[in-house]
Amino acid sequence: MDLRQLNYFITIVEEKQITKAAKKLHMAQPPLSNQLKVMEEELNCKLLDRNGRTLELTEPGKILYEKGKTLLANFEDTISEIKEVGEGLRGVLSIGADQTCLSYLPEKIKLMRERYPNLNFKIIEGDTFFLTNSLLNKEIDLAILQQPIEDENFSSIGLALKEFVLATPAQWHLPNPIQMEDLKDLPFLSFYRHRSCSTFRIIIDEFKSHGFEPNIICECIDIAMVISLISEGLGITILPKTSLDKFLIKGINIIKFANCNIQSKANIVWPKDRYLAKHAMNFLQLFKEETHMLARETIRHSQNV
């Protein structure tokens, strides 16, 4: 059995029909059926059972499918690495980002374009669950997420802390800075997809530490919509100040906190023990350089105090 036959088998499994698999592979059905028969004869076992119009894996077939996918993925990684060495840095860098982390990207992408003009970018927006799955499925190269993720499958670099602020309707006359206690009876708009989201939990815990929970009147996963609702006077929200940079802030006041300990603790994340393309490694290097620079500035400041 060779890699070509293995690819045929995996395609048949995923399409569940030889007809559909042949179409995807741009080949006729009879030769593909014959290749499956040759594989079963070579392995001396049945790999697929027919169930109506679809095909289902046998126990040996399940093993071949799982091991085969890993083998093909490793082979593709090897070919990609070899091609990059021969052709230089070009291609597409796919980056995932939490909505509240998009502000970390523009400066870094500009630097990458200046250094590597043949490089293109693809930015995918989503929550932690979606983006970590996208990383594991090799749909994106890197992701920037709020808060560290406690998963041994990933490596990460902590990014510069960002200030959380209160966004309120401009027509509301609230003190600036404001006390958390002043938010007790105000309508709160949440933009987190899941209440299990780490940043959402941190915000809720901050409310609880002041003796109450927010009065959540609306949950919406789109920050732009939440900003629009605030500008119409419907409520308030808490988010990193940098998340507001991409909006034309009309009809909204940005207020600092007098007694709030919430900070943006974003991390850039990538799968551990997986080959990273050179452009992804170079992108990571920009954040490593910034982290080292901030560390030196912190040490210098502490020595001068």
Which outline best applies? elongated
Distance between the termini: 69 Å
Please count the beta strands (DSSP E, at least 2 residues each).
Answer: 13
> What's the helix count?
9
Largest beta sheet: what is the strand line-up? Answer: 4-3-5-13-6
Radius of gyration: 25 Å
Mean pLDDT: 85
Q: Residue share in helices?
A: 40-55%
Strand content: 15-25%
Class inferred from helices and paired strands:
alpha/beta
Can you tell me the residue ranges where pLDDT is under 50 for at least 5 consecutive residues? Answer: none
Which series of helices and strands comes N to C?
A: HHHEEHEHEHEEEEHEHEEEEH
Largest sheet: 5 strands, mixed
How would you explain this protein's 3D organization?
Helix 1 (3-15) packs across helix 2 (18-24), helix 1 packs across helix 4 (59-87) and helix 5 (105-115) packs across helix 9 (278-304). It is built from 9 helices and 13 strands. The strands form 4 sheets. Strands 4-3-5-13-6 form a 5-stranded mixed beta sheet, sandwiched between helices. Strands 7, 10, 11 and 12 form a 4-stranded antiparallel beta sheet that branches. Helix 7 links the parallel strand 8 (187-190) and strand 9 (215-219). It has 305 residues and is α/β, with parallel strands linked by helices.
Q: Can you give me a brief rundown of this structure?
A:
This protein is of the alpha/beta class. It has helices at residues 3-15, 18-24, 29-43, 59-87, 105-115, 128-136, 198-209, 223-231, 278-304, and strands at 48-51, 54-57, 91-97, 119-125, 142-146, 154-158, 162-169, 187-190, 215-219, 237-240, 252-255, 263-264, 266-271.
